Amino acid sequence: MKQDGKLAQIRRRIDAIDGELLRLLSERAACAQQVAEVKQAAGEMVFYRPEREAQVLRQVAAANPGPLPDEAVTHIFREIMSACLALERPLTVAYLGPPGTFSQDATHKHFGQAISSLPQTTIEQVFREVDAGAADYGVVPIENSTEGAVTHTLDMFLSTPLTICGEVELAVHQQLLSKVPDLAGVKQIYSHAQSLAQCRRWLAGHLPGVACEAVSSNAEAARRAASEAGAAAIAGESAGRLYELTCLAANIEDEPGNTTRFLVIGRHDTQPSGRDKTSLLLSTGNRPGALASLLEPLRRHGISMTRIESRPARTGRWQYVFFIDIEGHVQDAPVQQVLTELREVTALCKVLGAYPRATGDAP
């Protein structure tokens, strides 16, 4: 009885806290509606501010007293902001589908659940939907820590007017999913080519000789595994839940730190958040020291380059463009000085976007 009385007291306290949380959530939502009214009265039609959301998430993580981990706290606040923003105006977000893909997971990680989703079958279609205004934003993969750059996404930036508004880093854990009861029953494996490559060693060690076929997405792989006898899929947990598959082996990726980076694309520039990244598209003539001339201004002004990729320019044989990510925002004085100098030594210097750097890689 003594224990029951103590539990009842704690539960009454929890109920009181829940009531206060609900009151505060309603108050926050009302403030969001007031923000919408002020913006509409001023004729402003952009309701989503990536830099503002990034600042809020950093603040709550820094102020978190525990015992909840930072990842849990930021996830909760992300959903609160998503629901409040939907009261102002729901966002429509295109992503590389179908539902059940890691791209959908990245979309929900960045925007929360309170959005209207538009799954697309190709990266090009994601760009097209955003460019046409059918979607407010798009989410596309740009690189994987194991397999490198997603070249289709890089190539789209050669011709698009869209800008990069944000980035998402997603820890990618591959699962072997099937209707069969154990590994011995697996006769065929489906997955996206990138996922097959990320699990190459595990497959060779545990299912040698089993046929592997690359398909358009991990969600498509899960669909086939659900409908074909003896078939299995390599996909994420969300695809397994969607198609009611059993996990035969978890986290089978060869590299335990396997992470995919996604870009958020839109039609509006993003203001500084205090911890930003700028992406550039550069082209220079085919001459000795050309690449060094691109990197020298960064060294001179103390700007850290976090990534560089080259791609064929499509303007002539053996002509290349460079995709470069640097720390800082395009409005920062050192970055502006670098851009001024780069424009003097390049045939093309295009700012693809300046945006908040990704927060942690919690799911």
Q: Order of SSEs, N→C?
A: HHHEHEHEEHEEEHHEHEHEEEHEEHE
Question: How much is the average pLDDT?
Answer: 91
Total strand segments: 15
Low-pLDDT residue intervals, each spanning 5 or more residues: none
CATH superfamily of the largest domain: Chorismate mutase
Protein name: Bifunctional chorismate mutase/prephenate dehydratase
EC number: 4.2.1.51, 5.4.99.5
Domain Chorismate mutase: 1-92
Subcellular location: Cytoplasm
Structure commentary:
It is built from twelve helices and 15 strands. The protein has 363 residues and is of the alpha/beta class. The chain has four domains: 2-86, Chorismate mutase (Chorismate Mutase Domain, subunit A); 90-172, 3-Layer(aba) Sandwich (D-Maltodextrin-Binding Protein, domain 2), CATH 3.40.190.10; 175-249, D-Maltodextrin-Binding Protein, domain 2 (3-Layer(aba) Sandwich); 276-356, ACT domain (Alpha-Beta Plaits), CATH 3.30.70.260. Strands 1, 2, 3, 4, 5 and 11 form a six-stranded mixed beta sheet that branches. It has a five-stranded mixed beta sheet with strand order 8-7-9-6-10. Helix 2 (50-63) runs antiparallel to helix 3. The two termini are 41 Å apart. The mean pLDDT is 91.
Task: Quickly list its features.
cytoplasm, 12 helices, alpha/beta, 4 domains, 15 strands, five-stranded mixed β-sheet, lyase, 363 residues, Chorismate Mutase Domain, subunit A, Preph_deHydtase_CS, D-Maltodextrin-Binding Protein, domain 2, globular, six-stranded mixed β-sheet
